[in-house]
Write a structure and sequence with these properties.
The protein folds into 2 domains: 146 residues, Rossmann fold, CATH 3.40.50.2300; 64 residues, Arc Repressor Mutant, subunit A (Orthogonal Bundle). Strands 2-1-3-4-5-6 form a 6-stranded parallel β-sheet, with helices on both faces. Helix 3 links the parallel strand 3 and strand 4. About 16% of the residues have low confidence. It has 257 residues and is an alpha/beta fold. It contains 12 helices and 6 strands.
Length: 257
């Protein structure tokens, strides 16, 4: 039997957090190794416990889910954002920051459990509302860069932060991306710099990722091992300076679709 998925749950609402922890711990293949009530605590817990997946709310004291996503990924975790809001700016901001998925809190419990498993496998997860936002972006609306995604806007301005079930108005301003950090998908698609050369197999994998296929489905379609698919995707992400499978799918649609 494989090791259970090690999960960190971050949400500033105690009742919501307790409910998520109870739900996720009820699954035999998931273990919640840590909880956090704010962005700073989530980062500290991720660095200490090295979870496989972080399930994070959007707006929490200290830093938002979008702001901490790039740093959570640096710990090796995949990031699933869950929010009470399905506003396009929140969805696109999360994806630009490198989130592997975006769900709304009204999802069925089984859907949330399935999303954790999918993200752990390296697949992308989007709620129906998040998918609509992505489709809208692909029809001509520019996606935010990582800097735009992680910067907290002024009160009353159009937000790019994600919020999950809270109406708090303020949040600490996040710093821009540090040295060596990858750019958001808008940087990768909007700049005039030529696309780094991709191998034929990397192109094949990206095309199937953009169709919404899982790694297992891609492996079956290309008659290769799933580890080979993961390797090709990892190399393509590095070349394109992208952080997640979702960003790769959006890049393909905007540049090859």
């Amino acid at each position: 039997m494989s090791e259970p998925i090690r999960l960190l749950v971050a949400d500033d609402h105690p009742a919501v957090r307790s409910g998520l922890v109870a739900l996720l711990n009820s699954a035999p293949d998931v273990t919640v190794v840590a909880e956090a009530s704010d962005g700073t605590g989530a980062l500290a817990a991720a660095r200490e416990h090295r979870p496989d997946v972080v399930l994070t709310d959007v707006r929490m004291p200290g830093a938002t889910g979008i702001e901490i996503t790039p740093r959570l990924r640096e710990t090796g975790a995949n990031v699933l954002v869950i929010s009470g809001f399905d506003l396009d700016e929140y969805v696109l901001g999360a994806l630009a920051a490198g989130a592997d998925g975006y769900l709304v809190k009204t999802e069925d419990p089984e859907r949330i459990l399935a999303a954790v498993r999918d993200v752990h496998r390296g697949d992308a997860v989007l709620s129906a509302a998040a998918t609509k936002a992505v489709v809208g972006a692909l029809r001509g609306r520019a996606l935010p860069s990582r800097h735009e995604a992680t910067a907290t806007p002024a009160a009353g301005a159009g937000r790019v932060a994600m919020d999950r079930g809270t109406t708090d108005a303020g949040a600490a301003e996040a710093p821009g991306p540090g040295p060596g950090s990858r750019s958001g998908i808008a940087d990768a698609t909007a700049q005039a710099a030529p696309t780094p050369p991709l191998t034929r197999r990397e192109e094949d994998v990206l095309a199937l990722v953009a169709q919404g296929m899982s790694n297992q489905q891609i492996a079956s379609d290309l008659f290769v091992e799933i580890t080979t698919v993961k390797s090709h995707l990892s190399h393509a992400l590095a070349k394109l300076q992208l952080d997640s499978r979702v960003q790769a799918a959006l890049w393909w649609q905007q540049n090859r679709g």
